[in-house]
RNA sequence: GGAGAGAUGGCAGAGUGGUCGAAUGCGGCGGCUUCGAAAGCCGUUGUCUGGGCUUCCUGGACCGGGGGUUCGAAUCCCCCUCUCUCCGCCA
């Protein structure tokens, strides 16, 4: 959630920033108006309630002194009525305000380039040259077929479309990658967690998936539980509604999890292969930092993901997302895109975001700075998406006969 | 799934209608003591939010969540959620 005080005090600046993300001035005017109205109504209510409290205290005294209570009761009764009315109004306004505020995306960082769509993302650098092939490289689904690695039909039979089954070496490769990624992250100081793969709605509100993006989630019937779309949700919310000690920051956490996404708006996209599945494996990094240190941790996380790709021998590039392509909670995001020789293009394999205090405010994650409680910064990033890494290895390590080499760093994991 | 017990501050745990934002203990923080430490002693110590003459003063809200009774609710009533114990079932 954005800082409403900041919106109130620096409206022009704030609306300028959000306009770049497609939030119109009218919405922001409404939001600001509601905020001010809420404050006013609260003040009105509190004044009446203060008087009511004062008289109620008197009541006890009068009674002990055996004084006549009729007049006092009348006065406090009418105050009570008035307070109830004002309280209801204040609460209604608060709720309207809340609903609207929860739907506003984060302010983009000053560094974020302005853009209309993903075409306006800015490439920062390329790491490793794409390899040369003496034969036309195949796409991963062909290779999957030839090697018996992925069973698409039976995945669909077991669940529905966009589910697949990994078999034999492919399944082993997935297991190897998970272990390799976790080891790498731990070397960088991340602590490994094993987490619930379901979260309740409060947690999903904390990280920003709810209430706006419910359609993207799988919900468990009859329970207030959702399958997690990323381990970012449970990792970040580990410290939901907690006040941390400043000297335990930064908290660096990593976890493997399956990720479940309905891909509601993606009908028809990437229908072949396992680029876009309802369930995929991912190893996630999450950091909870002091607000002044989130930038350096961000760089470290991008560096870490890039290093892993480099060790795997996978050519990739870093892309700074433009304002239009930023995720809802992110102030800044760098995507890592891996080269797929079969598709002859770069595809997202990791995404590192700094949400600054946006999630922290929603999830109430704070730290003690002297006497004051301040909001932390939260960051998340994949290191890496396992399914897409398998795709990348298949396409980059394919031989002319269709067989697939295993990257050297993974040998001890297989 | 059946039966019962419970949910209070960082933790433990009192509080059954007003003077309770809440005893006490532990922990934390500050000080005294000490060469230093431990022990001991003294003091301090919840969160959110509004206002003000903004190292301080002051209003409101919060005792799992929601509603109700009452001039007044942590305390009484109703609903929900969660936790624990026992039994059953089960990886």
What would a concise description of this structure say?
By secondary structure, the protein is α+β, with helices and mostly antiparallel strands.
Supply the helix-strand structural class. alpha+beta
Question: Radius of gyration in whole Å, from Cα?
Answer: 27 Å
Order of helices and strands: HHHHEHEHEHEEHEEHEEEHEEEHEEEH
CATH superfamily of the largest domain: Bira Bifunctional Protein, Domain 2
Shape: elongated
CATH fold group of the largest domain: BirA Bifunctional Protein, domain 2
User: How large a portion of the residues is in β-strands, by DSSP E?
Assistant: 15-25%
What distance separates the N and C termini?
44 Å
Features:
414 residues; alpha+beta; Helix Hairpins; BirA Bifunctional Protein, domain 2; 2 domains; 8-stranded mixed β-sheet; 3-stranded antiparallel β-sheet; 12 helices; 16 strands; 41% helix; 21% strand; elongated; RNA-binding
Explain the overall architecture:
- The protein is of the alpha+beta class and 414 residues long.
- The chain has twelve helices and 16 strands.
- The strands form four sheets. It has an eight-stranded mixed β-sheet.
- It is elongated and about 100 Å long.
- The two termini are 44 Å apart.
- The protein folds into two domains: 4-101, Serine-tRNA synthetase, tRNA binding domain (Helix Hairpins, Orthogonal Bundle); 118-413, Bira Bifunctional Protein, Domain 2 (BirA Bifunctional Protein, domain 2, 2-Layer Sandwich), CATH 3.30.930.
- It binds one RNA strand of 91 nucleotides through residues 39, 42-43, 45-47, 49-50, 52-53, 55-61, 63, 69, 72-73, 75-77, 79-80, 224, 243, 364, 373.
């Amino acid at each position: 959630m954005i800082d409403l005080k900041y919106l109130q005090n620096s409206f022009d600046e704030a609306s300028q920033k959000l306009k770049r993300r497609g939030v119109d001035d009218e919405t922001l005017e409404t939001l600001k108006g509601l905020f001010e109205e809420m404050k006013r109504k609260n003040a009105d209510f509190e004044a009446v309630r203060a008087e009511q409290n004062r008289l109620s205290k008197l009541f006890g005294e009068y009674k002990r002194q055996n004084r006549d209570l009729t007049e006092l009761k009348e006065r406090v009764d009418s105050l009570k009525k008035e307070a109830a009315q004002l309280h209801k109004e204040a609460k209604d306004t608060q709720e309207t305000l809340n609903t609207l505020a929860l739907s506003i995306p984060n302010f983009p960082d000053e560094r974020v380039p302005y853009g209309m769509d993903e075409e306006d993302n800015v490439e920062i650098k390329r790491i490793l040259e794409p390899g040369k092939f003496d034969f036309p490289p195949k796409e991963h689904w062909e290779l999957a077929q030839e090697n018996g690695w992925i069973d698409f039909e039976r995945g669909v039979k077991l669940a529905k479309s966009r589910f697949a089954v990994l078999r034999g070496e492919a399944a082993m490769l997935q297991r190897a990658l998970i272990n390799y990624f976790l080891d790498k992250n731990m070397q960088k100081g991340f602590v490994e967690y094993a987490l619930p793969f379901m979260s309740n709605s409060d947690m999903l509100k904390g990280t920003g998936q709810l209430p706006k993006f419910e359609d993207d989630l799988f919900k468990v019937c009859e329970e207030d539980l959702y399958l997690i779309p990323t381990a970012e949700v449970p990792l970040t919310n580990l410290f939901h509604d907690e006040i941390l000690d400043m000297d335990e920051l930064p908290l660096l956490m990593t976890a493997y999890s399956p990720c479940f996404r309905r891909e509601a708006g993606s009908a028809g996209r990437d229908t072949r292969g396992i680029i876009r599945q309802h369930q995929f494996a991912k190893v996630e990094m999450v950091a909870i930092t002091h607000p002044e240190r989130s930038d350096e941790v961000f760089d470290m996380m991008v560096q870490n993901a890039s290093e892993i790709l480099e060790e795997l021998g996978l050519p990739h590039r870093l892309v700074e997302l433009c304002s239009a392509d930023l995720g809802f909670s992110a102030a800044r995001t760098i995507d890592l895109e891996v080269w797929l020789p079969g598709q002859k293009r770069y595809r997202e394999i990791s995404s590192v975001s700094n949400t600054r205090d946006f999630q922290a405010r929603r999830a109430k994650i704070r730290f003690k700075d002297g006497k004051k409680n301040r909001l932390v910064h939260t960051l998340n990033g994949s290191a890496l998406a396992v399914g897409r890494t398998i795709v990348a290895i298949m396409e980059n390590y394919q031989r002319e006969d269709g067989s697939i080499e295993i990257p050297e760093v993974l040998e001890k994991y297989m």
